[in-house]
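The methods section describes the discrete structure representation at length, but only in general terms. An entry of this sort, consisting of the sequence and the corresponding backbone structure tokens, reads as follows:
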Amino acid sequence: MIIYNVTCNIPSEIEQEWVHWMKHEHIPEVIATEKFTGFKMLKLLTEVDGNEGVNYAIQYYCHSVDDFNDYAFNYGPALKAKTAAKYGDKVLAFRTLLEEV
């Protein structure tokens, strides 16, 4: 299994609005691409010195790197642009691709 992990740092003042948007708009749009078999949304509880805001990790599961690459090429840019248009540089995201071993 391949896991596409997106870790986001969100300012505390927009956390609840962002979580609602993720759960009711963004994540459903990602899943609607049919490139992922499921997801988990996790809130990081570990505090990091100097880190402001709150952190979440969203893990999307897919069967293969080919499925992820199809998503990244055909769907990812538009969804990233939509997020950037809504939040600008308020939400910082760090993306990684993982393989279950």
User: Anything to note?
Assistant: The two ends are 8 Å apart (CA to CA). The chain has one domain: 2-99.
